[in-house]
Amino acid sequence: MRGPTFLLASACLLLAACGGEQPPPPAPATPAVVQPAPAAALPPDMDPTLLRVNLAAAAKRLCSSLFVSGRTREHVLAEELAEAATLGVAFEVGSAPEAVTARIGDFEETAVHRRHLGCTLLESVDAQALLAQFDVAAYPSPVQPDPALPWPEGALVVLPETAPGIDLAAVGAAVDAAFAEPDPTKPVRTRAVVVIHDGRIVAERYAAPFDAATPQLGWSMTKTVTGTLTGLLAGDGTLNITAPAAVAAWQGAGDPRRIITLNNLLQMSSGLRFSEVYDAAAPSDVVTMLYGPGAADMGAFAAAMPLDHVPGSHWSYASGTTNLIASVLRDAFASQADYIAFPRARLFNPLGMASAVIEPDESGAFVGSSYMYATPRDWARLGLLYLQDGVWLGERLLPEGWVDYATTPAPAAPRGEYGAQIWLNAGAPGNPSDRPHPELPPDLYYLSGFEGQDVVVVPSRDLVVVRMGLTAGGPEVVWDVVAGVLEAISN
Description:
It is a single chain. It is built from 14 helices and 15 strands. It is of the alpha+beta class. The strands form 4 sheets. A 6-stranded antiparallel beta sheet has the order 6-5-15-14-13-12, sandwiched between helices. A 4-stranded antiparallel beta sheet has the order 1-2-3-4. It has a 3-stranded antiparallel beta sheet with strand order 7-9-8.
């Protein structure tokens, strides 16, 4: 699994709404300050550790949804946090600083918003100390794409009525099908689909109140962004991915982790122990890292894990690995300000991704595993950058060969399903038919996140498909969209 699906007591998810019809959402609005409601008493059978984890998850989700996505409190509570009110969780939304506190009984957790950085959970510092870490004035201004120029050079999108080599009616039908709700017990809740062919948007659709301007959480699609930033630093000569990773905690004499390379980390083959399990009964490593004590410094939490396998010999998907990479990247900069500015200056602004926000933890390192928000069109820009071999508008952004490296199966990935911080459809060595999606082309690769966030790239068909939503336990509709669009493209 690629995101948190843990429970609060025996009730449904706090992070993802449970099944059932939802009332029509209100229109987006600037979040207002909400006075706290009385918090319910702590149920007698509630485990305090699990409670804190879920309160932290709820506070963080509401904070980012309000202050980064610009959604209304009512809509978030009706969807992602539908069970919170039922269980008696009280939310306080503040304006100075912008923050959200989730409270039940004597327990509370708070997430604080900072402009350009999104929301960060408070674990070991107070709000004022967190705010003091970041100088907003030193942050590079997001560059807005020219509204008069066509996407992706600018922001203008006019859907074509006809396009060479593609049946647009069939594409539209595939997109519309992604928004269908055939089974009310397994809601799909697609929020956006964008289809790019031959470098242009040929179809898109949104579910109100979401639209083309709404930043949405990519969850583990953020891992590919972290890998991309690593590629930029490798191209600069700042990092050598084949050398042992510069992790201070591993430098003791005889520490077997000293030989772990950045390449091992990028390919999810570090050999480190890490439990990527989402279980209501006992918070695992990933849950503790994202919403428990490990949230203060997620990279340090992952770095403290022992070695279970020889580096490079065992593939294991782990969000802690990516947050460790994010910390390695931070340590490569002379200052925290330079590190924070790097994604904007070197990736987001050149691509025109004005909406993109990567949220850090308390230590100042980006939560590179999980916490980037961007509009679907901006997520599509990242997919298009990979499709174009790291070249954007005639300028090489990623070092030559980086996309080939990232999309080459990790030697330890048993079915050729993973490269360097990106999912693949390559197939098992010597048996390419044994691949995750045998009905789709083997050159397909994709960014993938919890609740059905996907950016799918098919280089042989010049195609990028973005699907975003709130699907918890329902069908993975993105593959039907991709299959339908591929059928609509002439060979």
